[in-house]
Amino acid sequence: MTAASAVPTTAPTRIPDRTAPPADTGPWVGRPLDRADGTAKATGSATFSAEYQVPDIAHAVLVHATIARGRIRRIDTSRAEAHPGVVAVLTHHNAPKLAAPRRASLMDLSTMVVGSRVPYLNTDEVHYDGQPVAVVVADRLEAAQYAASLVEVEYDVRPAHVDFAVEQSRATPVSQSLGMPTVSGRKGDAQAALATSPHRVDLRFTTPTQNHNAMEPHATTAVWDGDSLTVWDAAQNIDWFRKHLALRFDIPLEKVRVLAPFVGGGFGAKGFVWSGTLLTVMAARVTGRPVRMALTREGVYRTVGGRTPTAQRVALGATADGRLTALVHEAVMRTSPMGGSPDQVVGASGDLYDAPAIALSSSVVELDLVPNTAMRAPGESVGSFAMESAMDQLARDLGIDPVDLRLRNEPDVSPMHGRAFSHRRIREVMDLGAREFGWHERRSTHTGSFGSTSVGYGMALAYHPAWTFTANLTLRLDADGTALLRCGSHEMGMGTVTVQAQVVADELGVPYDAVRVEYGDTDLPIAPGAGGSAQSASVAGSIVTAASQIRRRVRRWGGRDGEPLADALVRTGHDHVEVSVGADSGVRAMAGQVRFIAQTLRDQRRWVRAASGAHFCEVHVDRDTGEVRVARWVGAFDVGRVLNAKTVASQLKGGIVMGLGLALTEETLIDPRTGRIMSASLADYHVPSHADVPDIAIHVLDDPDPAMPMGVLGAGEVGITGVGAAVANAVFDATGARVTDLPITLDKVLRGVPRV
Ligand code: MOS
Prior knowledge:
The longest helix has 22 residues, at 535-556. Helix 10 (380-398) packs parallel to helix 18 and helix 17 (645-664) packs across helix 18. Strands 3-5-1-13-10-11-12 form a 7-stranded mixed beta sheet. Strands 7, 8, 9, 14, 15 and 16 form a 6-stranded mixed beta sheet that branches. The model is unreliable at 1-22 (pLDDT under 50). It starts with 37 loop residues before the first helix and ends with a helix. The chain is of the alpha+beta class. The protein is globular and about 75 Å long. 27% of the residues lie in helices and 22% in strands. It is built from 19 helices and 26 strands. The protein binds dioxothiomolybdenum(VI) ion.
């Protein structure tokens, strides 16, 4: 399914009634309940991966390579080993062999969990600055930290490619990423159409490397008992972690248990296995003791990938009345020889605007840096910055309101493929957001006098594809009216457990408080990782299936119409009913995977499913310093059915806050000479703090999507898309400076202000 060549245009498809129209939910779905785990987290009683009190635990600390590429000529661990309390120092001289990871395959999605293919401590080769070259294990953390500083390493340095600004000229085109044809595509001859368009916007954009900065840095506690392994890890995907650890340490899958009941944010980086996890497990195996490794913030930067930088071009052709004639979106990204993959930077641009000619392309250059990885709306977050900035510029050039320009180009079917939208509410979210913001009553002020502030307004669309994955679970209803959901899903702060309990409550007709949810443990049925904004819909779909099986079974046992299920259990002499959805292993699991792939491909051909939104913001720009303060924000979204009004709003708000960082402050600085990350701390890499975040008003349509389980489109990532552009557009409105390079720092604003 390559999309390198022109994508065939198919006739619009009607949406079959695959998922019945969402049944009227009961009293619990949609309610703005507090998160079930909120109190535990707020009071400190929630136990995170680095907090398990395991007897005789040892502490591991990484020693990082200080060159980007080359070989270890000599590594001397004698001083480290002699330090009191040191239990072991592992290097490529004495580390046990790790089995090689498998190639990525759709038949086993866990193969995609590889953060980097570097054979850690099994090689003298260095592939990036920060790569672990030794692990020091000691009785106490402080001893391990100090001893790590005593490890002496000499290198044979080889030339490295680390500077994206320079190296992007040798990027080569890619046509697909992880099997998804959303990095390129073509309809008509966009370049020719552009050349003959009466009006043109042709802009270049850059976005920097960014890092995730979850509140909880990556951490692992590993305990071996004979050849059984238990790992607590700050993971977004315990099933993939488990399969990967079994493979790399060559032990049967049943011997590995991964737990992650609490995760302090992930944003994509925790969906992949990085060196810290592998080397903690290795250290525990070698020392025969439980081992904990809690990465420092710097350790995360140096061993866990961030978001790829991009260089983008968006070119739009249009008629005088604002109808697009051509749409071009090109992106350059970086991966690494040892891993990483291209992001969907241009993917959404084929679905947004009704242009007769479209050309989307991506290219990639491999750099000798820690591989890039998924970071909240990987691709869409920065692709939307370019696309939505260019649309704003076009609106300005044509003298059309940016909302109006988008309305004039609102398609009926996907412009790129002609596929149907499962449902499309762009008009509605723009309308809702504009109304709530007072968009059409806005008054920008541009006073040029010394010491003054300019006020500007900006808007941009948000857009993120919707997915579902396989979610296995068991659901049990007891005759006493309590229910138990067992599902190895992930709670990293989004509200997973809370909304699952709400869905169970309504599906089984029991109170929310009567539902217990077990999660975050690979001893439970396999759920998808928390990624792609897909977990809630995926699990909700399986809960609906399980509940209907329960209803059928109770009916077979003699249950009556309208009778509460628990009452029917009592009356028919059953103390409980329990059903399973999906299978974790064996032929049935394989069949489930085949079904999943077939359905995913069919869905892709059949329709476009996406969450969408519209951002509106007000910025205040200091005319003298160029400082941008975001003063007010309204986001209106279509995320399908709302499972919990509070957690959905929090997810969307969180996305916007992260987007403010992307817009204004976040930038991972890499030394172009050495490939070393220079801003590996929260002092040097500024994420938004309270003072940076304005009042954010969230509005949602709560309109179920007919093609998604329970109508849920997912809300984890759509919020961050478009934010960078909304800010940039407001800055332009305030100052006349079109900043096309993120982040929008003071110098760029001042430089961009037109001289009069
Ligand atoms: Mo994500 S980037 O799907 O956690």
